[in-house]
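HUMAN: Spend a minute on the protein record below and explain its fold to me.
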Amino acid sequence: MKDIIIFGAGYKGRVLNRMIKSEEIGNSFKNYNVKYFCDNYKVSGSYVDGVKVIHPSTLDAYCNNGTRIFISTLRIADEVARQLLEIGIQMDTYIVPDYLYQFKWNAKNNMPAFIKIDLTKPRMPYLECRIVMHCNLNCKGCTGFSNIHEPEVMTLESFEKYLVRLKELYWGIKYLKLFGGEPLLHPQLSEFIELARKYFPDSKLVVHSNGLLIPSTNEEVFKTMNKMDAKFVFTLYIPTGLKKRIIEDILCKEDIEYVFREPVYEFRKVINSKGDYDPNEIYKTCSKCINLIDGILSCGLGYIIDALEKHFNVKICEDKFQRCIDIHSTELDGWEINKILSSSSNLCGYCALMDFRHLKDDNFYEWKCEGKPQLSDWLL
């Protein structure tokens, strides 16, 4: 029998302990024995479900005979990984993904019941992969600039190449979004979802869509999303709202998790053409949406500016690709990349989207899905 220590004696930890003992998860934990719970907040020496609780500061005493640590839930994974690294724990460490606790989990889907993590690497907090550049809508001032971009999709080969490299830099990605444009326009969306889950089974995997193509979406996409525990996030544009009940009915029947964001009645201008905002002030309210475009990790603002400059033949910003990191050529490790991407830069001075100090009427306009794009749709 192999001894394991479950880190986290809360609800998920107790459920995991019972699942292991009752063999509810088949052979995944065969010949494993829950020796201890480890918890920062339970009294050391007390018992939970008949299992003794130890404190993280004493883990060194148990680093022998192949004992393994299982972090009970992704909710605490980042903090626990940091703590284990700080106290120098050498034990093999695994996380238990949230889908293990759901009826969706099935070993036949090739989704692991637990995932070994490399404590020498960090976890990426957030990543958006733009797999489609065009869209089925023509929103005025589109923040993805799809209305001024030719139809284009990311290839499956490129996507896997990016994932392989990211796996070298990070043990996981906390939130992984596939978006566009409109991702439902990609003919290989199912394969993208499968690859994302294969390389980053720890991720909250999301497909961000306007939802309008759900009624005509191939059944295979729904089956894959269900099997791979992927969710839909919908931007609630006016035409989406008109189809909301139809969309919900389809996804409920398919047992797909989804969420609608707040209704969109207006857009705001994205770029301060003067670039004179205080970068540090703007960054305080930044949503920190890291994009992966053409193998480059960056804030997406530089790509919006670049698209506008090319389309309208103007010059807005000389150094629009600040904080851009080519994952295939960088010598930085994941820790250094995270540090760079989680700091302000001069480019923040151009970001009107994250400027919540000046909510003036001329910064906003009614959402529309018509008309020829104008530079003023994006620029202050």
In short: Residues 120 and 324 are 23 Å apart (CA to CA). The two ends are 66 Å apart (CA to CA).
